[in-house]
Design a protein that fits this description.
Blueprint lengths: L1 E4 L4 H13 L4 E4 L10 H6 L7 E3 L5 E3 L1 H8 L10 H31 L7 H22 L12 H10 L13 H11 L10
Parallel strand pairs: 1-2
Antiparallel strand pairs: 1-3, 3-4
Helix pairs in contact: 1-3, 1-6, 4-5, 4-6, 5-7
Length: about 200
């Protein structure tokens, strides 16, 4: 199978980390979003939404959206619960990541790391940081009584949230006042096959 993505992107890194954890063989094709490679006719044929990552299966079928791909690749593995309730809890945290976490932490990081913090986006950058801390507060509270996000067991819920949380500082977001999150980051990094995000 083939994964199209940007190794510095948190959403793409989710798939790298999962594949490393589960030792899933794949081909990686780097896509340059700043050069608008996701807007080419060839890429849009794979994902009409023009976003990465994209998974191309051996069948020639395509899957998009990072968390959907995680759920597909984690089937029949310890990283996806067997029972419906805990599968739904994983989805609950993945929806939280996409709606309450990623739009703030990932966008602040994009403005700083990818765009170099241009003056015209400084106000947006500061607003994104406020939303980021709200999401981190929710995570910190949950992790005060849990080792991981679902069933005290490492899962794709953790991968989804780890991807952008561990590089939050690249968007001007400090984790200094989040001891439970910092302890959880260490636990994620101790998982078999752990790999780092590209810099």
């Amino acid at each position: 199978m083939i994964i199209y993505g940007d190794r510095k992107s948190g959403n793409c890194y989710k798939l790298q980390l999962l594949c490393a954890n589960l030792n899933i063989e794949h081909q990686w094709i780097e896509v340059d979003i700043l050069n608008k490679e996701t807007q080419s006719s060839d890429f849009l044929a794979k994902n009409p939404n023009g976003k990465i990552p994209v998974l191309e299966l051996d069948s020639g079928e395509f899957l998009t959206e990072s968390n959907a791909i995680l759920n597909y690749l984690a089937q029949n593995s310890p990283l996806l619960a067997n029972d419906l309730y805990h599968q739904a809890k994983i989805l609950q945290w993945q929806f939280f990541e996409q709606y309450s976490h990623e739009p703030f932490i990932a966008v602040a990081r994009f403005i700083e790391k990818y765009l170099g913090l241009p003056a015209e986006r400084l106000e947006e950058y500061k607003q994104k940081q406020q939303g980021a801390y709200k999401a981190l507060d929710v995570m910190e509270n949950h992790l005060s009584t849990n080792s991981f996000f679902v069933s005290n067991q490492y899962s794709i819920a953790d991968i989804s949230l780890y991807a952008y949380t561990h590089v939050a500082d690249e968007g001007g977001i400090s984790l200094v006042n989040y001891p439970n999150i910092n302890a959880w980051l260490v636990r994620v990094e101790q998982q078999p096959g752990y790999c780092k995000i590209a810099q």
